[in-house]
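tokens incoming
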């Protein structure tokens, strides 16, 4: 074991001991007796452990350590009551968001909104972007942080190591990150095993096919309803420690919507074949799938056919680069509308380097993410929302570190928001802060639902879409009323 490995092990042990001590003190003193959900525990990670990790370890080493802390259930849990969508004054906002499978050529409503045969319900608009958990080894712990959705990947058909190290750089002065990992992945077979274990032990949200799979859970793979640890755990000592930890520090493990981001192998010449393999092998375990590639007509058509064959009812999204020219964005919007893709993720990292960057690493090659691309990604969202006439759901990602950042992306046209790079600088507690701040801002803006804020910046589209939603709600209310009257008879 190298000195650095020993140091990492020491930091992990220290984290475990410190976390256990804090939780025990809170439990015994009742101050405030919320364990990993407490303000004290959040501050411990955000103000001490996260800055210390940046000082002691390089970006990739710190990333692996953070992933291990989350996997072991040591990271902060979302503050209790967040899902209620209640601000500090007691006003309630409906934070749920529904995304459905679009059908082209039939099922169109009068206003042009495609009806859906399958929908996925997100308990809040804040999710985790792909890249943090590439192989799906820490999904339950990530939901515990407060994400309503977790996107793993990118996952390639065959294992591949990615690019040579170093391949990740912190731009501390700019609150940015440059990565050139090169799709390092354990491959679909290993990831499939992780997802099978997760679904068996924790279930999760998703389409009807997902719920049918969950109903067949075996006793061997059952999960302790209080502890959140599989009964099949081999090490009885670890299980006993886990039992004590979860009794003291929290309640049941959270679950949510699981996305799987797919990629192609670097050595492969068959792009369509690679994505088809990913859809076939991982689609049955995903609540939504993502193609991490500029959408081409034949690629999207083939991928949608594979989705319908191997994972029917599972939404298929495409992740876009912010470096597309206006002409390319227009072409992408047209292809997305014609093929019936279910949603867009806007945006990926950028190869551009803003002149405002200060860090000595600003010239490193790779994709730039974090605060430096916040405004760029928001503008891309606004552009794609206009080009698609608001007909395709958009997941907004890029530099989100506050409720204000999230609301800006919602107003630009995003229905959902993803976070990742800003956790490097703000700590895991940023998830709870974003959700709290967003609810406060929605109340201040007079919005009763998250969806009421989507696309406000594009007034012509916004009011037309809002009128359509109101008409749909009235139709639903009338149908419900008719059913009730029939039942009463």
């Amino acid at each position: 074991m190298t000195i650095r490995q020993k140091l990492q092990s020491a930091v992990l042990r220290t984290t475990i001991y410190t976390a256990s001590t804090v939780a025990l003190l809170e439990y015994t003193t009742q101050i405030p007796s919320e364990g990993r959900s407490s303000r004290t525990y959040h501050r411990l990670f955000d103000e001490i452990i996260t800055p210390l990790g940046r000082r002691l370890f390089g970006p990739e080493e710190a990333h692996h350590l953070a992933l291990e802390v989350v996997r072991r259930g040591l990271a902060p849990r979302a503050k209790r009551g967040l899902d209620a969508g209640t601000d500090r004054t007691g006003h309630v906002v409906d934070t749920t968001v529904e995304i459905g499978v679009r059908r082209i050529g039939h099922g169109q409503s009068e206003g042009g909104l495609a009806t859906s045969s399958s929908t996925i319900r997100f308990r809040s608009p804040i999710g985790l972007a792909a890249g943090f958990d590439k192989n799906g080894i820490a999904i339950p712990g990530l939901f515990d942080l407060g994400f309503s959705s977790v996107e793993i990947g990118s996952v390639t058909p065959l294992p591949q190591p990615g690019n040579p190290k170093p391949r990740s750089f912190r731009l501390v002065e700019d609150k940015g990150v440059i990565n050139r990992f090169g799709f390092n992945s354990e491959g679909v077979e290993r990831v499939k095993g992780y997802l099978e274990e997760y679904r068996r032990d924790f279930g999760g949200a998703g389409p009807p096919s997902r719920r049918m799979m969950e109903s067949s859970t075996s006793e061997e793979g059952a999960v302790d309803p209080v502890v959140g640890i599989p009964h099949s755990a081999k090490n009885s000592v670890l299980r006993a420690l886990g039992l004590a930890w979860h009794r003291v520090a929290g309640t049941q493990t959270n679950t949510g919507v699981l996305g799987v981001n797919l990629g192609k192998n670097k050595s492969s010449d068959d792009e369509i074949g690679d994505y088809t393999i990913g859809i076939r092998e991982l689609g049955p375990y995903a609540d939504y799938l993502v193609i991490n590639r500029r959408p081409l007509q034949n690629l999207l058509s083939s991928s949608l056919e594979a989705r319908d064959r191997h994972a029917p009812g599972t939404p298929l999204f495409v992740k876009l680069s912010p470096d597309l020219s206006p002409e390319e964005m227009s072409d992408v919007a047209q292809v997305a509308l014609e093929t019936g893709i279910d949603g867009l993720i806007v945006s990926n990292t950028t190869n551009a380097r803003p002149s405002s960057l200060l860090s000595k690493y600003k010239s490193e090659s790779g994709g730039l993410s974090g605060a430096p691309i916040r405004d760029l990604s928001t503008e891309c969202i606004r552009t794609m929302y206009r080009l698609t006439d608001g007909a395709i759901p958009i997941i907004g990602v890029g530099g989100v570190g506050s409720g204000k950042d999230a609301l800006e992306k919602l107003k630009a046209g995003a229905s959902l928001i993803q976070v990742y790079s800003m956790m490097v600088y703000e700590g895991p507690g940023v998830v709870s802060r974003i959700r709290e701040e967003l609810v406060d801002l929605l109340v201040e803006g007079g919005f009763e639902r998250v969806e009421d804020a989507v696309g406000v910046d594009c007034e012509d589209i916004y009011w037309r879409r809002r009128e359509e939603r109101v008409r749909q709600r009235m139709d639903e209310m009338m149908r419900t009323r008719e059913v009730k009257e029939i039942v009463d008879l």
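note: The longest helix spans residues 459-488.
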